[in-house]
Specification:
Chain lengths: 703, 337
């Protein structure tokens, strides 16, 4: 408790530390470290909040917790442990969600400083808004693997957490998942959907059966434009009977899904029957959509009977426990049968409409997904993965180590001294990296303190956004749940139509229930209409300008445009978007290489760098590109198709074969980070560095 | 106790419990690295706050054994950052006082304490370890241990924190490791649209690290170094001043004699390098060891130990400086003369 001993700190800082009241949000990897640093520095008035309980896999870094604490409240155990370091501190622990309405603006106003150590964007956005409202400085931090970052957010002085748009989560088009997977992740997503179809809450966009309406399966027009409905109608005559039936089935998606679940139940979850349906009949069906396989390798259906090896029933259970081994296809079939049995048993015991929720830490659920993903990978000639690797991808596990958390939390509390002293200019963001940059820094402070974005839809005065939305297909309930809550991170918004003042969505329960099922257009929410949203609890008001567009198949039904000036007349839109995407892409790549070469491999949410050495930065547009790679030849083959597909190398480069590294001659161009930097400490270099560090790859998570 | 020396084989399989406990880090550095960690024997000499931080991180990572060596007793000053020693342990031996909490961090690691003075430890003692980390020793002592370690092929790291300022020096001799070299491929199509793909290529490297004498012989006042000093700030200069203080007075500056010691420090600074960029304010935060700075330096040092043990990724070469004012952490390459 440094501040309790006279002479350790300079006198002014000593006083500030002694009398300040601080809030720590999150008692995970960074939170434990922050709390320790605070009590040892001599802060005596501390509150800490976390809704989580302690898990065994936390113990490699959340050092305030031990084995006997597993299952207990993180906030409370962290408090107990920290008090043993400094019994004179006063720590209040809340085992609760920081987004609960119990912690309003007045709660936040009590503090001189808030340190956030969260692991998800929704809570970060919320804490950001509360601190802006309460006008309390916020030190925001996060780590992922070797990367860490700390930044100050202060109203009117700095950027807020939401001033810069964050990367969206990676998502895949439905037909890639259902018809034409080309990467392990596609099969993993499909397997999770299959789990939900059978046992979980089945969602409309999680169909797993072949998609007969895949535009790829149709003969192409010259210009590649998707056909209008009436043209499809004409073509129908030429389709086979099955395809026609399938099309009608998918048109009533819901019925098909319920039937799959019911059908599985009716077959008593017979492993052979289910296996053959998903991995033989459905694949045979896909093969009939012959256009799909003109430029792709066709899938090979597998048959349950052929995978039954004799006399191996004894060690069946053990196969599933070999987490690091890549199971053979026969072993996958075994694990499939065993996990199916367990899951169906549990499922049938549920009451009423209850369903299972997929959880990476639930053993049969994880076994099932690993087995199904691998069988599907095998069918499509995609590299199979170990259960361990699949868990990373399926569970979005972000690797975490004690040292990065310690370093990041240390910097957080170092910054809090400067904040208390109001030395704002010395509170520039800091990034922790594995490897030093060109100036030999690996703990890298930003060159400047970026000011607020005047167009930020959170911290600007009178914020407004344009919402591109298909008003003919989206319902009011979805406007609230998907757009306002999930995307714009409101908690419980009220929405009125500006021109008429009529209430569209009310935060009072039941008040606007009759609107929920209606389409926006039915309530006359059409192009040009302005909505006023107000989240009372967050003290947040936002104007939304509606801009209608007709969404394509597989396209999102809405998109938030934070800066209205980005909207261009409709016919130019398409073109411009692609160009922008490309420019962004380019920027990302340069940015990454300039900011330390390890960045790109660690920032993906899904895998450890070991399992996915190749990563394509962007892949959801309609470019013409196929990359194929051999294990021993980094050869780039470019083939024109109308759909992007990237084939991962059959064996990943993680295999250690240093001597066989091929020279770079086959690679079109290399941007090696170290070569990219000018050598001397020139002006030019400094500005480059500033640019790179002010736009770092965002680290989104800790846990 | 003497640790079994026959554990350098990495054919061992991790148990299910280990796999579960170390899951999040195995996903970062891989199974092979975790197996290497499991065989590593580490010495931490000097259980000050920094020693406690390094100890914590190393134990959490899942090494084979850690020996805590210290002949000093717990003082009030330790409560600024030494969280392994409980309040009740005031005036008892620091290494022994740290044992219970260190063991609670990870029951799978073999942890022992040794209260003999570092100065009395001979070559045989250091030979038991794969990595030796020494905190708060004088330059003479560091040089002696470095020489022993270089003879034995033991990797050696010297480190320290004064207040919020810290450093380490890595004397790793010949070190080989594997690092993933990331290349960015531009993949173009007919429309000249550019795509990027990153490819990681595991590459074997060998690097030579000079001994601690390289730092002792390093001339910070050399004109060739001045420009660098200006760019990176006064860290290396501050380190020289503090080490000179320790050598001259056989102790560190104390908060109990704050003003007098500040005067002595200013004297050393002006003698070493008149009109330097090392301001008086930077000297105000060098007392005791302040927890957040110790966390940063302790985190960095522990990560270096992990890199050395796992032979994955390049250890920084070879002088690390943490600048508390900017929170910059940077590396100076000190070559042997």
């Amino acid at each position: 408790m440094a501040a309790a001993i006279d002479g350790v700190f300079p006198a002014t800082l000593q006083e500030l530390v002694k009398k300040s009241k601080v809030l720590v949000v999150g008692a995970g990897g960074i939170g434990c470290e922050v709390l320790k640093n605070l009590v040892l520095s001599g802060f005596t008035d501390i509150e800490i909040i976390d809704l989580d309980t302690i898990d065994l896999s936390n113990l490699n870094r959340q050092f305030l917790f031990h084995r006997e604490h597993v299952g207990k409240s993180k906030a409370r155990v962290a408090r107990e442990s920290a008090l043993s370091f400094n019994p004179d501190a006063k720590i209040t622990a809340y085992h609760d969600s920081v987004t609960s309405t119990d912690y309003g603006v007045n709660f936040f106003k009590k503090f001189d400083l808030v340190l956030s150590a969260l692991d998800n964007r929704a809570a970060r956005n919320h804490v950001n808004r509360m601190c802006l409202n309460a006008d309390v400085p916020l030190i925001e931090s996060g780590t992922a693997g070797y990367n860490g970052q700390v930044e100050l957010i202060k109203r009117g002085l700095t950027q807020c957490y939401e001033c810069t748009p964050k990367d969206k989560q990676r998502s895949f088009p439905g037909c890639t998942i259902r018809n034409t997977p080309s990467e392990p992740i596609h099969c993993i997503v499909w397997a999770k959907h299959l789990f939900n179809q059978l046992f979980g809450e089945s969602l409309e966009d999680e169909d797993i059966s072949p998609d007969a309406a895949d535009p790829d399966a149709k003969e192409k027009d010259g210009d590649g434009e998707p056909k209008k409905d009436d043209e499809n109608e004409k073509e129908k005559g030429e389709e086979s009977k099955e395809e026609k039936e399938a099309k009608e089935d998918t048109a009533n998606g819901n019925i098909v899904r319920i039937n799959t679940r019911q059908w599985a139940r009716d077959c008593n979850y017979d492993a052979g029957k289910l296996f053959n349906k998903f991995f033989n009949e459905d694949i045979t069906y896909l093969l009939r959509m012959s256009n799909l396989w003109k430029t792709r390798k066709a899938p090979v259906p597998v048959q349950w009977d052929t995978l039954q090896s004799e006399g191996s029933s004894g060690d069946q259970k053990d196969v599933a426990k070999q987490h690091h081994k890549v199971w053979s296809i026969e072993e996958c079939a075994q694990v499939f049968a065993n996990s199916l049995k367990e899951l169906s048993g549990t499922f049938l015991k549920l009451e009423g409409d209850d369903t299972l929720a997929w959880d990476k830490d639930d053993q049969p659920a994880m076994d099932f997904v690993a087995a199904c993903a691998n069988v599907r990978s095998h069918i499509f000639d995609i590299e199979r993965k170990s259960r361990f690797e699949i868990k990373s991808m399926a569970g979005n596990i972000i690797p975490a180590i004690a040292t990065t958390n310690a370093i990041t939390a240390g910097i957080s509390v170092m910054r809090s001294f400067k904040v208390l002293e109001a030395k704002w200019e010395q509170c520039k963001a800091v990034y922790a990296r594995l490897r030093p940059n060109a100036r030999n820094h690996f703990l890298v402070p930003d060159a400047s303190l970026p000011g607020p974005n005047p167009n930020c839809y959170v911290c600007a005065s009178d914020p407004a956004i344009t919402l591109k939305i298909d008003t003919k297909r989206l319902r009011i309930k979805e406007l609230r749940d998907e757009v306002l809550v999930k995307t714009l991170n409101m908690l419980n918004p009220d929405v009125t139509v500006e021109s008429s003042g009529s209430i569209l969505i009310s935060s009072e329960e039941g008040e606007t229930e009759c609107n929920e099922g209606k389409l926006l257009s039915e309530l006359n929410i059409v192009d040009g209409v302005i909505l006023k949203c107000d989240d009372f609890f967050q003290n947040y008001e936002l104007s939304i300008i509606i801009s209608h567009f007709d969404a394509e198949r597989d396209e999102n039904l809405f998109e938030v445009v934070a800066d209205a000036s980005q909207l261009k007349p409709k016919d130019e839109e398409q073109k411009k978007d692609t160009v922008e995407a490309k420019e962004d892409d380019q920027k990302t790549a340069t940015k990454r290489s300039a900011n330390g070469e390890e960045d790109s491999k660690d920032d993906g949410p899904s895998t450890s760098k070991r399992s996915r050495p190749t990563e394509v930065v962007e892949e959801d547009d309609d470019d013409c590109l196929v990359i194929e790679e051999d294990e021993d030849q980094a050869e780039v083959v470019i083939v024109a198709t109308d759909k992007l597909s990237v084939q991962s190398p059959p064996k990943s480069g993680a295999k250690r074969k240093p001597c066989e590294v091929i020279e770079d001659e086959d690679i079109t161009e290399i941007l090696d980070s170290s070569d990219d930097e000018p050598a001397g400490p020139t002006k030019c270099k400094r500005s480059r560095l500033d640019e790179s560090s002010s736009n770092p790859v965002e680290v989104i998570s800790i846990d | 106790m003497v640790v079994d020396m026959d554990t350098n084989e990495i054919s061992v399989e991790l148990t299910e419990a280990e796999n579960e406990l170390y899951d999040r880090q195995i996903r970062l550095w891989g199974l092979e690295s975790q197996k290497r960690l499991r065989t590593a024997r580490i010495l931490i000499a000097g259980l000050c706050g920094l020693g406690a931080e390094i100890t914590k991180n190393i134990i959490l990572s899942g090494v084979n054994s850690v020996k805590l060596l210290d002949d000093k007793n717990v003082t009030e000053e330790d409560f600024c950052s030494q969280f392994l020693a409980p309040r009740e342990s005031l005036n008892s031996n620091r290494a022994e006082a740290s044992l219970a909490r260190a063991r609670a961090l990870n029951p799978m690691v073999d942890i022992s304490a040794d209260r003999e003075p570092l100065q009395e430890k001979s070559s045989e003692f250091f030979g038991q370890f794969d990595v030796v980390v020494v905190n708060s020793a004088t330059n003479e002592e560091l040089l002696r241990i470095d020489t022993i370690c270089r003879d034995l092929g033991v990797k050696f790291i010297a480190t320290d924190v004064w207040g919020t300022f810290g450093f380490y020096f890595a004397s790793l001799q010949k070190h080989n490791y594997v690092e993933d070299v990331i290349k960015h491929k531009i993949v173009a199509n007919a429309d000249k649209k550019k795509k990027y793909e990153t490819v990681s290529i595991p590459t074997q490297r060998d690097v030579d690290y000079p001994g601690y004498s390289a730092w002792l012989e390093f001339d910070i006042t050399a004109p060739s170094y001045l420009r660098k000093l200006k760019r990176n700030g006064p860290g290396v200069l501050l380190l020289s001043v503090l080490q000179k203080f320790r050598t001259t007075h056989q102790r560190d500056p104390s908060y109990k004699t704050r003003e007098a010691d500040l005067e002595l420090l200013r004297g050393i600074r002006d003698e070493l390098m008149p009109n330097s960029i090392l301001g008086d304010e930077a000297l105000g935060l060098i007392f005791a060891q302040i927890s957040p700075a110790v966390a940063v330096v302790g985190g960095v040092v522990a990560q270096e130990v992990i890199k050395v043990v796992t032979k994955m990724e390049a250890p920084h070469r070879n002088l690390f400086v943490f600048d508390p004012d900017t929170c910059a952490g940077y590396v100076e390459t000190i070559e042997a003369k």
